[in-house]
Design a protein that fits this description.
Layout (H helix, E strand, L loop, with lengths): L1 E8 L5 H4 L6 H9 L7 E9 L2 E8 L4 H12 L9 E4 H12 L11 H15 L5 H20 L9 H13 L6 E5 L3 H12 L4 E6 L2 H11 L2 E4 L3 H4 L5 E4 L10 H10 L5 E5 L16 E5 L11 H29 L2 H23 L7 H28 L6 H12 L10
Parallel strand pairs: 5-6, 5-8, 6-7, 8-9, 9-10
Antiparallel strand pairs: 1-3, 1-4, 2-3
Length: 423
């Protein structure tokens, strides 16, 4: 078994690179359903968020090229290796556990990543792209993420992307009390952003979305006002801040629109915070006089808030991760022999049943209770005969003797099962 992750995140690639790796759920599902087209790949999970794009894979021989080709095909472009990181085996497991625990996020301890990992795993499982290895790994990783949040205070007073965006706006504008805002988008991130705006004293929030029904639904929740998408910039003539958080694959705020907005505002400046990946605001708008633009990579200065306390909790979280990684790797050691042991058990059970059928005609005077006694007795005999060889085989897993015991079992029992290759 070769376990590997290949990916990029906020530490290895800027937002203008990360946004190229934003892949829709439907495209991911189709890709995973055709995983067998890639040589050596037997399992895969694709995790994409605003700050990372990763492919976790199980292969027969560590086929890194096949994983990269799968990634290239998903995004429709060739990945530059300088932005990528690769982890194998135990390091791969440790990386995933750190991700689910919020230790590998732009904002230490952020909670949204756990639900994103769950969703990525559910998508892969529904596409029949996972089996024993990734099912075991992801279920344990999700449990570890929950455990970290329960047993530590890593998420206590943590800053989210949405709250960091609002804090940044408050800092740059000298506070938000009594100000107004326009939000592009009506998803979960947009709703969280609106709540943070309100907590900072923003008096009026306009919500623009391609689907006006969703904008109206969100506006009702926050006490704001929904505006048709095509009228959003008209509503922005008097707002103090525009925050964008859509899932659009292209820019939704363009320079010409922004120039017209500035003109309608009589030259009064406008403040943009773009927390979408791919980006919503064309970076060219910063060339327009009076425009201030921040994107998700500019939030780093804000996330220092409460960081020291969360870093202390991160030490405790790392101990939990180490325990759980050790446990899952221990379990993986025994997976190598499962096909062999299952095959031996099945063959022995088959022999037992055939022998009982052969003597059945000679024991025709036995009643049902007596037949059950014989059945249980012969079953116990088989189990006891196999118990010691199985224990020896299991005990050799992960040791220098594992190949010796595997070959001995195959030779003694004439077994031809192909085992799972392991790092």
């Amino acid at each position: 078994m070769h376990l590997k992750v290949i990916g990029l995140n906020h530490t290895t690639a800027p937002v203008e690179v990360r946004e190229r790796f934003s892949v829709g759920k439907e495209a991911i599902r189709r890709g995973l359903e055709n995983l067998d087209e890639y040589d050596g790949l037997s399992e895969a999970v694709v995790l994409t968020t605003c700050n990372r794009s990763e492919i976790y894979a199980v292969s027969e021989s560590g086929c890194e090229n096949s994983i990269k080709q799968f990634m290239n095909d998903l995004i429709g472009a060739v990945v530059d290796d300088k932005y990528l990181y690769t982890y194998d085996g135990e390091d791969c497991a440790r990386h995933l556990f750190a991700v689910t625990s919020g230790l590998d996020s732009l904002i230490l301890g952020e909670g949204q990543i756990l639900s994103q990992v769950k969703e990525a795993y559910a998508t892969a499982k529904a596409a029949a792209a996972t089996d024993t290895i990734l099912n075991t790994l992801f279920n344990r990783a999700i449990a570890t993420g929950k455990r970290v949040r329960t047993e530590t205070k890593i998420a206590y007073n943590s800053v989210s992307v949405s709250s960091a965006a609002v804090d940044l706006a408050a800092r740059e504008l000298g506070g938000l009390d009594g100000k107004s805002a326009l939000i592009f988008g009506a998803g979960k991130m947009a709703q969280l952003t609106a709540q943070h705006l309100l907590s900072h004293g923003v008096k009026k929030i306009f919500v623009a979305n391609h689907h006006i029904e969703r904008a109206m639904e969100m506006a009702e929740k926050i006490g704001g006002e929904a505006v048709p998408w095509e009228e959003a910039f008209t509503s922005a003539a008097d707002v103090d801040i525009i925050i964008t958080s859509t899932g659009a694959p292209h820019y939704v705020v363009k320079p010409w629109q922004t120039q017209q907005l500035i003109s309608r505002r009589g030259g009064r400046g406008i403040f943009f915070v773009d927390i979408a990946v791919p980006r919503d605001v064309d970076p060219e708008v910063v060339k327009i006089k009076g425009v201030t633009l921040y994107n998700i990579d500019d939030l780093e200065s804000v996330v220092e808030k409460n960081l020291q306390a969360r870093q202390r909790e991160a030490v405790l979280a790392q101990k939990i991760i180490s325990e759980d990684v050790a446990a899952v790797m221990e379990r993986f050691k025994y997976l190598k022999f499962r096909p062999l042991m299952a095959n031996l058990s099945e063959r022995a059970e088959g022999i037992r049943r055939r022998e009982i059928r052969r003597v059945a005609s000679k024991l025709s005077d036995l009643n049902d209770d007596e037949r059950k006694i014989i059945d249980r007795m012969t079953h116990r005999i088989v189990c006891k005969l196999l118990r010691l060889p199985m224990m020896k085989l299991n005990a050799s897993a992960g040791t220098d003797d594992e190949n010796f015991y595997e070959q001995a079992m195959r030779a003694l029992f004439s077994d031809e099962v192909t085992s799972i290759a392991q790092n």
